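User: I'm writing a short methods note and want a consistent example. For Pvc16 N-terminal domain-containing protein, I'll paste the sequence; you return only the structure tokens, no commentary, since I'll be parsing the reply automatically.
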Amino acid sequence: MLNSILQTLAEMLANGAVLTSTEQIDFSHPASLENSHRELSLNLYLYDVRISKKMPTNGRQVERYFDDSRQVAEVCRAPSWFDISIVITARDRTVLGELHLLSETLLLLMRNRLLREEFLTPDLRGHGNLSLSVTNEPPIDVGSLWSSLSLPIRPAIYLTVTVPFNVWRKTTVPLVTERYFGVNNSIPAISKSGSITQRFAIAGIVKNTLDAKPLKRVRIMLQGTEKSVTSNDEGYFIFENLTSGNYILHLKRSGYEFKMLNVFVDGEPCIPKEILLMPAY
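Assistant:
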């Protein structure tokens, strides 16, 4: 996982016209730059790994498919998310050259606030785009960091990448019912013929993937119907007066990636499920 992140960053920097080759990027102790004979190079030094406070650390993932005409599911616990902290320094013949290289690197990083999934190494795929941010508050005090490296403080970029790490194996089970959302109280409705039809509700809470804060003004639509609602200040929404069966929800909000989710309504009461939307950069 860790070497994959460094490899992905190196390829992004090399392909972004900051450098011409990944051979100009080093991952060893920053002191190696002092003894380097390279005229132009970057050092990406990974100095801290800790559990991310922005991402959820529990739950499960379910993938449904048909196996020998039987619907089954692969169930796996959701991955743990870690904040990987990296300090980036530059090496050139002159101080101005180093500052120019750092400036170009910073510009490229600010233009790419996410590591796109299609550019990730295979072991990092399957969780969407990864958050990438330049921080002004490194997890370790800047003075303490450079002191521990036995080096004087020098111009640097402090980068944080939030990545998943999954130690749980998938388990394949026969699928009977998989509910994605809470189904609130069922309501009996009497038709004109006098028969009783059960009515149900679908409820959920929409949150930001990166900080888990509720998202208001998210438009949620039921595919194939004219029903639509908007999440409130707490991110909560509800569809009422529904019959049992399968539904597809469309979630839209400006500045966030579009999302579609399957919903199975069977009348069993449960707590509304959180839905995470990823910001679109």
